[in-house]
Automatic annotation (TrEMBL):
PANTHER family: HTH-TYPE TRANSCRIPTIONAL REGULATOR GALS, LACI-RELATED TRANSCRIPTIONAL REPRESSOR. This is LacI family DNA-binding transcriptional regulator. PROSITE patterns: HTH_LACI_1, HTH_LACI_2. Pfam families: LacI, Peripla_BP_3. One of its GO terms (molecular function) is DNA binding. The keyword Kinase does not apply. Keywords: DNA-binding, Transcription, Transcription regulation. Residues 5-59 form the HTH lacI-type domain. The lineage of its organism: Bacteria, Pseudomonadati, Pseudomonadota, Gammaproteobacteria, Enterobacterales. The keyword Transcription regulation applies.
């Protein structure tokens, strides 16, 4: 039987106290960077099982969100996810703090400001940021993102993209555009794959011009307007749009209205996320509903249950509203469920 490396063993090899080793492995303050790195290196060399650090009670949790998820396009989604995390923290008497993060930040310094026992990271993060998170040795759960060596929880983005596109096909639409941003983001990539599968199953092949990918810039609304301009300038403009989220769908509908294009008579529109503004739009926006609060609660449970290898997929459902359904197009093309 292989003997497990203990904190005491690492302390002896490092020439420091057991308490110092514990602080180093948990990413807690009170040590120099040089000492911390030396202790972690010795622990790794001795084969210490870092997942054992997760057995202690979580008292402080830090919620990290990428800086590119700005208020206009992302916070209607991620603020509700964060509320779900906050609900779970309150029930378990865990203090929660929030920190925007990006590739230019020194991740360890930002984390140390909050002194958390665990991290929940939401949305897109660059590979280099994920690499720095691995070095913290803190328990980490990802929301709306997937990485092979992290516990993560995601909506079923592929199925959502599939059912949204199938719905538009059922309305008789044949020139269905995907209106999105960078496929660096795991969720968007999955939605595109669902969209493409639905088209394939229907025997439709569309030119690449019908897939708009706007750059992930700070002024995302301006980029979305430019993307809609390109779509509407096509020799055969789309008769339907599946947008990567509701904010993009609402921009699409606004641009159609500005040009006198009727929704849904001339262009049907479906979004994703079912933010509050979707039901208030004119016409009300069809969308794929995600239980955003449950995403946050489930991410918290992954940390509490120490399910370090677990990946959760939450179901989604289509909410058909007036932006995609007309009497003239209803049920022309029926596809198998």
């Amino acid at each position: 039987m292989v003997k497990k490396t203990r904190i005491k063993d690492i302390a002896v090899a490092s020439g420091v106290s057991i308490a110092a080793v514990s602080r180093a492995l948990k990413g807690q303050p009170g040590l120099s960077d040089e000492t911390r790195q030396r202790i972690v290196s010795i622990a790794q060399a001795q084969g210490y099982d870092f997942s054992r650090l997760r057995n202690g009670r979580i008292k402080r949790l830090l919620f990290l969100l990428h800086r590119e998820h700005n208020i206009a396009s992302a916070l209607p989604f991620y603020s509700t996810v964060m509320l779900g995390v906050a609900d779970a923290c309150r029930e378990h008497e865990v203090a929660m703090s929030f920190q925007p993060i990006g590739p230019d930040d020194v991740v360890a310094e930002l984390i140390n400001l909050h002194q958390p026992d665990a991290l929940i990271c939401a949305g897109y993060l660059e590979p280099e940021v994920l690499a720095e998170l691995r070095l913290t040795t803190l328990p980490v759960a990802l929301v709306d993102l997937w990485a092979a060596d992290f516990p993560c929880v995601n909506p079923d983005n592929y199925h959502g993209g599939f059912v949204a596109t199938r719905h538009l096909l059922e309305q008789g639409r044949t020139r269905i555009a995907f209106f999105g941003t960078s496929q660096r983001h795991y969720s968007i990539r999955q939605r595109v794959e669902g969209y493409q599968q639905a088209l394939f199953d229907a025997g439709l092949t569309l030119p690449a011009d019908y897939r708009i990918e706007v750059p992930p810039v700070k002024d995302i609304e301006h980029a979305l307007v430019d993307g809609m301009t390109r779509l509407l300038a096509l020799p055969e403009p789309p008769d339907a749009i599946f947008a990567y989220n509701d904010v993009a769908a609402l921009v699409a509908m606004r641009e159609c209205a500005r040009r006198g294009i009727r929704v849904p008579e001339e262009i049907a529109v479906v979004g994703f996320d079912d933010i509050d503004a979707a039901a208030w739009a004119h016409p009300p926006l069809s969308t794929v509903a995600v239980d955003k609060r449950e995403l946050g609660r489930d991410a918290f449970q992954l940390l509490m249950n120490d399910e370090s290898e677990r990946s959760l997929l939450l179901p989604v459902r289509l909410v058909a509203r007036e932006s995609s359904v007309t009497d003239s197009h209803a049920s022309r093309l029926r596809l198998a469920p």
